[in-house]
Amino acid sequence: MDKMMWSNSYKKDIESILFQKCDWSRFQGKVILISGATGLIGTFLSDMLIFLNEKFSLGMTLLLLSRHEHDFNLNYVRNIKHDISKPLEIDEKIDFIIHAASNTHPLQYSQFPIETITTNVFGSYNLLNLSARNKGCRFLLVSSVEIYGDDISNSEEGFTETDMGYLECNSSRACYNESKRMSETLCAAFCAERKIDYVIARLCRSYGSTLKKDDSKALSQFFRNAINGENIVLKSEGNQYYSYIYAADAASAIIFLLLNGKSGESYNVADAKSNITLKDLAKLVGKYAKTEVIYNLPSETEKKGFSKAQKAILNPAKLHTLGWSAQFDIENGIRRTLEELKKAFNFIDY
Q: Where does residue 285 fall: left (phi above 0), alpha (psi -120 to 50 degrees), or beta otherwise?
C-alpha cells in the first residue's frame, strides 16, 4: 500500500511492529529483498520496513520483487518486476532475503497446480541461489501451516515444529503443501552444501486489509459478502478448526524472526487467541457486518482447491520463547479488516 495513502487505522497496524523487541540498528545500511512484495503479507512487510527506515533513519535499501509493479516513489525503494520461477540476477550486495511469493488460495491450487509447484520450488531454488552468492546474507522462507497436513492425532496443544499430520500426496491439491515442504528441504540442503544462513516462518491462515481482489479463501469470501452487504455463505458444515493470524502480526513475526530466529530453525507463527472454527469465524464476520450466515454447496472446481484438513492448529510456544507476541486477536483483526475494506469499497487489486 502506498505510504502516502495510509489510513490512520492502517498506520497503527504498521506501527505495531514497535511492540516487538528488536535491535533495529541491525538493519542500518542494509539491503533487503522481499519476494511477493505486493501480496497479503508482502505488502505489510514492505510498509513496516518503510516505516522503520524512516522512523529510525536506517538508510536501508528495499528491493521489492513481484510480478506486478508498484511505485512507492521513494528513492530507497526499487521495484523489480520478475517471475521468481525464472533465474534472477541482481548485482547489488543483498543482506536479507524474505521469500514470501507463492500461489496462496484454493482456486489457484485447483486451476494451476503445476504453476503452484514451480513457483514454490523453482522460486525458492532461485532465491536460495541468490542468497548463496551473497556472503553473509540471511534468508527467511515464509512457509505455511499446510506443510503439516491434517492433525489426525487431535492433539489439544496443536502442531509443534517437529510434528507432522496426514497428507495425501497423490492429489493435485497437495501441490501447495508438498511444494512448501520441498522449499523447506531446499533451505536445509543449501545450508548443508553451500553454508547459507536461513530461518523458516510457518504461518497459519492469514488475513487482513491487504487481501487481493481475486483471493478465494473462505474468509476472503466472507469479507467480500460482508462489504457488499450480502449474507455470509458457508460452503461446509464449518466444523474445521484452524489457527488464524492478522496480517500485521504475521509481518511483525517475520521481521522479528529475520533478526532473532536461530539459524536453521523453523517457527510456527500463530496466536492461541485466534484459534476458531470456520462456522464461528463466519458468525463473527456476520456480527460485525450485520448480515446472516447461510449454507451453500461449493462448485466442483472450488471443492478441488479446498484444504482436506479438518483441524490445523499451530502451537506458537517456540516463537513466544524468543519474545514475540501478537497484538491483534481474532475479533480485533476481523473488525479492523472490515473497517479498512469498507473504506476502500473493495479489495485491493494489484
A: alpha
Output the pTM of the full model. Answer: 0.92
Q: Is the pLDDT of residue 74 over 60?
A: yes
As a three-state string, the secondary structure of the chain is CCHHHCCHHHHHHHHHHHHCCCCHHHHCCCEEEEECCCCHHHHHHHHHHHHHHHHCCCCCEEEEEECCCCCCCCCCEEEEECCCCCCCCCCCCCCEEEECCCCCCHHHHHHCHHHHHHHHHHHHHHHHHHHHHCCCCEEEEEEEHHHHCECCCCCCCCECCCCCCECCCCCCCHHHHHHHHHHHHHHHHHHHHHCCEEEEEEECEEECCCCECCCCCHHHHHHHHHHCCCCEEECCCCCCEEEEEEHHHHHHHHHHHHHHCCCCCEEEECCHHHEEEHHHHHHHHHHHHCCCEEECCCCHHHHHHCCCCCEECECCHHHHHHCCCCCCCHHHHHHHHHHHHHHHCCCECC
Q: What is the pLDDT of residue 235?
A: 79
Q: Can you tell me the distance from the alpha carbon of 224 to that of 300, in angstroms, rounded to the nearest whole number?
A: 21
Answer yes or no: are the C-beta atoms of 255 and 261 closer than 8 Å.
no
Cell of 336: 479492523
CA end-to-end distance (rounded Å), the chain: 10
Residue 305 in contact with residue 177, Cβ under 8 Å?
no
| 96 DSSP β-pair partners | 32, 138
Nearest to 119 by CA among 133, 137, 136, 100: 100
Cα 144 versus chain centre, distance: 8
Residues counted in the chain: 350
Over residues 12-60, the pLDDT tens digits come to: 999 999 999 999 999 999 999 999 999 999 999 999 999 999 999 999 9
Model confidence pLDDT, tens digit, residues 204-232: 999 999 887 767 678 888 888 888 889 99
